[in-house]
Sequence to fold (173 residues):
Amino acid sequence: MSMKHLLKDLTYRKAKPNDLNLALELLKITAQDLQERDIDQWNYWLDPPQERLDWLREGFENDEFNFFFNNKTLVAMYRLMNMDLKYWGPQEEKAFYIHSLVVHPNLKGHHIGHQILLEIKKLATSNEIDLLRLDCDSTNQRLCRYYEDYGFKKVRQKQMPNSLNNLYELQLK
Fold:
């Protein structure tokens, strides 16, 4: 399938509360793929602790997850938050916080992540938000480089229970 055809065939919808298991399955598939490629990130999604399940459930309860389907297959998702106290702490600037931007491993290289980031930028602009923020496990150098090449700037690092994360910002104006 060509990239243009694939992107055209993607359908977007807000996740529904009963979609939690779909999200969990995509996270597990991605964690397994990362593990097979010797990338030490997201191993906790293989057998998620209660704290991670609660974090996921909270996102669904707050209507923060967004899905992309090809036909009826979930191929990508992301969580978009208006604040992120856990990683960023209290902040004065209005920003969108991007989490769990996941593309099914079988579809990597089709620029789906890039397309999702473009859609998030449009959404931010329409909501008069000029700043996007996200975090990335600092040991996943390829993914960190991906965000940096996209224009995100590393502003600091934050030690989390399972990883040392780079915190990135993208100024839209």
